[in-house]
């Protein structure tokens, strides 16, 4: 469906943007073929490497190809906006001579280039630290101020390499958290291809440890192998499991569930009942679930705070609404859901196949638990 949608987008851009340009037929053919290549970039990855998430190419090539695809999406969005304005002028405002002019088409292409260069530059930066207070109902006074630093969607790859991860780890450790919680998608690629870049994960430090759940991208590249690798690096990998933390005489539960894509690889999918088996019901529960899809069900089952990723915050203002529609209304930030909360992270990194951020920054998030008034 993804590749079909991109082919339709390609046809739309050729129809609305390329064919009306005052160029020769050959020039239009070349431009159309260029757009076709960009739109089929991920399909070509799938054909060459067997997946479309981690091309084993030099960093400069990954950046250029991913940036071109991001530019394709920006061009598509701006062309759609141009056509919506045209339709409003033509059929609502009754402006009979309204049309998408040649100068407007050049403006759309020029603005696409500017926004893409800016957005790609923003996407590959080391994220700033964001602090969010979360009021928890019936939180014991001893847990007031408990600090959880949340990372998600780091996607270490040939785009986000060891130098970037080293700085992320330094900034994370500087927050001096009680717990570090990572809600999946730490990598893109198989273990043997990523080992040179992930050494810094060993340096993550928190008072009570580093906890993580697996995201869909770990499962794409042998989830069990990645779980073992992260365990060997000192992380607590919670696969439908929980761990009890004692802090100043009070307990707090840190739990994690598997991503639903695990079932595609004949592995166990998300199972909250199993994850919380024998967990004390009186203790606050923090759950790592890579996707926000099951938030409402999880909170109804007693979760006080869910930490999720997967959406990357929507990446581009406006595009956020499309991402929201595919994620049960959740895209970025703190949401009150029933008697609990969801923190939906923007992501610490980004998938190398769509490396762009416009108005939706990546983040390292410090969540401070507070007693609800």
TrEMBL record:
Keywords assigned by UniProt, alphabetized: Membrane, Transmembrane, Transmembrane helix
UniProt superkingdom: Bacteria
Residues spanning the membrane: 6-23, 30-48, 60-86, 106-124
Keyword Transmembrane: yes
Gene Ontology molecular function: any one: hydrolase activity
Domain Calcineurin-like phosphoesterase: 146-313
A Pfam match: Metallophos
Keyword Transmembrane helix included in the entry's annotation: yes
Stored SUPFAM superfamilies: Metallo-dependent phosphatases
Cited CDD domains: MPP_YkuE_C
The protein's name: Metallophosphoesterase
Organism: Pelistega suis
């Amino acid at each position: 469906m993804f590749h079909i949608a991109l082919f339709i987008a390609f046809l739309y851009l050729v129809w609305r943007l390329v064919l009306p340009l005052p160029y020769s037929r050959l020039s239009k053919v070349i431009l159309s073929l260029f757009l076709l290549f960009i739109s089929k970039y991920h399909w070509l990855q799938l054909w060459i490497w067997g997946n479309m998430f981690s091309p084993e190419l030099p960093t400069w090539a990954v950046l250029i190809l991913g940036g071109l695809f991001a530019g394709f999406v920006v061009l598509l969005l701006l062309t759609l906006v141009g056509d919506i304005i045209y339709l409003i002028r033509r059929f609502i405002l009754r402006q009979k001579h309204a049309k998408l002019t040649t100068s407007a088409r050049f403006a759309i292409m020029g603005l696409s280039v500017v926004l893409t260069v800016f957005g790609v530059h923003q996407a590959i930066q080391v994220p700033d630290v964001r602090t969010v207070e979360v009021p928890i109902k019936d939180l014991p006074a001893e847990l007031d101020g408990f600090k959880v630093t949340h990372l998600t969607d780091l996607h270490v790859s040939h785009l986000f390499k060891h130098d970037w991860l080293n700085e992320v780890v330094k900034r994370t450790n500087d927050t001096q958290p009680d717990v570090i919680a990572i809600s999946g998608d730490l990598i893109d690629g198989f273990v043997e291809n990523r080992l040179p870049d992930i050494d810094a994960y060993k340096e993550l430090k928190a008072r009570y440890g580093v906890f993580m759940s697996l995201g869909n991208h770990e499962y794409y590249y042998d989830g069990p192998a990645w779980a073992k690798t992260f365990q060997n690096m000192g992380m607590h990998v919670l696969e439908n499991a929980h761990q009890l933390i004692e802090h100043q005489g009070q307990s707090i539960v840190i739990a994690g569930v598997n991503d639903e894509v695990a079932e595609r690889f004949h592995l166990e999918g998300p199972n909250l009942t199993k994850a919380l088996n024998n967990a004390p019901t009186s203790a606050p529960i923090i759950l790592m679930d890579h996707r926000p899809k099951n938030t409402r069900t999880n909170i109804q089952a007693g979760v006080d705070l869910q930490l999720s990723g997967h959406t990357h915050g929507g990446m581009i203002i406006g595009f956020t609404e499309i991402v929201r529609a595919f994620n049960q209304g959740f895209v970025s930030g703190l949401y009150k859901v029933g008697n609990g909360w969801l923190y939906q992270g923007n992501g610490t990194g980004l998938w190398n196949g769509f490396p762009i951020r416009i108005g939706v920054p990546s983040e390292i998030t410090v969540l401070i638990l507070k007693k609800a008034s």
